[in-house]
Amino acid sequence: MRHILMDPAFEPVPIPTYDYDGNLIPPEDYETKLHGATVHVKAVVVHQYLRFKDSENYYLDLRYLRVLREPTELVQAETLPGTTVAAINPAPAAPVASSSKRCGFPSLGSGKGKAAQKD
Prior knowledge:
Elements (H helix, E strand, L loop, with lengths): L1 H5 L10 E2 L11 H5 L3 E13 L4 E15 L3 E6 L5 E6 L30
Parallel strand pairs: 1-3
Antiparallel strand pairs: 2-3, 4-5
C-alpha cells in the first residue's frame, strides 16, 4: 500500500471523516481518533456494465465516516507474575439527541448523484 501512496501516478483522496460532534478529522489523525471507535460508514455500490467486453464491474465508493462512539481505552491488567493481558475499558456511550432518523445525526451531502445511493 505504501508504494501506491508514494507513486506520483496515483493521487490519494482522503475519505471525509467526522468526529462525534460533526467536526472534520484530518487524515493525519485518523489512526488516533478512529482506532477502537464505533463508526457509521456511508458507502455506495456502483455498477458498471461494459457492453463491448460483455462484463460487469462493481465498486464500493466510500462517501464518509462518522464516529458514533469514541474509541475505547486499552488498559493493562496483571494476571500472573511477569505477564499482562490487554483489557478493554469501554468509553461510556454518548447520548444521541437528534430529530434525524439516521443514526442520530443529520445526513451529510445532498444525496444526489449518478449512482443510486442506499445505506
